[in-house]
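User: My instructor asked us to take a sequence, write out its structure as tokens, and then describe one feature of it. I'm not sure where to start. Here is the sequence I was given:
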Amino acid sequence: MRIHHAGFLATVLCLFLGAVGCQTTAGNTFTYKDMPVSNGTAVAGEGNKIMFKGSPLTLSGNGVRMGDALRDVKVAQNDLSLVNIAETKGVGKVRIISVVPSLDTPVCEQQTHILSERNKGLDKMVELITVSVDTPFAQKRFAGEAKIANVTFLSDYRGGEFGKTHGLFLEGPHILTRAVLVVDKMNIIRFIQISPELTQLPDLEEAFQIARRLITES
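Assistant: Let's start with the prediction itself. The structure tokens for your sequence are:
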């Protein structure tokens, strides 16, 4: 029943995002595609808009800004246990939080591989986190098939509380918007980018650079 639910959610999100060939890449090598990277950022929070292929979608929740503290909210780990997003295993270190609508879509898949494989050694110094509304079972399957072991996968499937608490939830399709956050050792958000167009990647390279600078400053 749980596997059926995870598969159904993935199918619905694939159809919504207009994904072609919605699947993870099994094997050792991921084939990167030429995908656009967003310039600028949308604004988190109730009533603000992002675009999906030219059509507006409305964000909901209490938006965060740079300089705000990461807020207390529970998300699910792969074993279904709950953890406070502000108190994950990397608390006290710099953390990069990659937010995606669904891992079973090509843009989200590539975003997660970039986080895991193109961080140039940052994974040894910071915690890399991916948050999505996929079930913990689907996240565990994705990580295994993609052979990603250096990213903490956390699920907001229970009600989108992480998204709503940070103003990153899309109420209509009931998914998270696409974003990346860099959080310093004191749990302060030092960088946030929300892709203005849902089908475009956030600038993870900029997030990596900011994380490196924070490590150097400390």
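For the description part of your assignment, you could build on this observation: Residues 1-12, 18-27 have pLDDT under 50 and may be disordered. Try explaining in your own words what that tells you about the chain.
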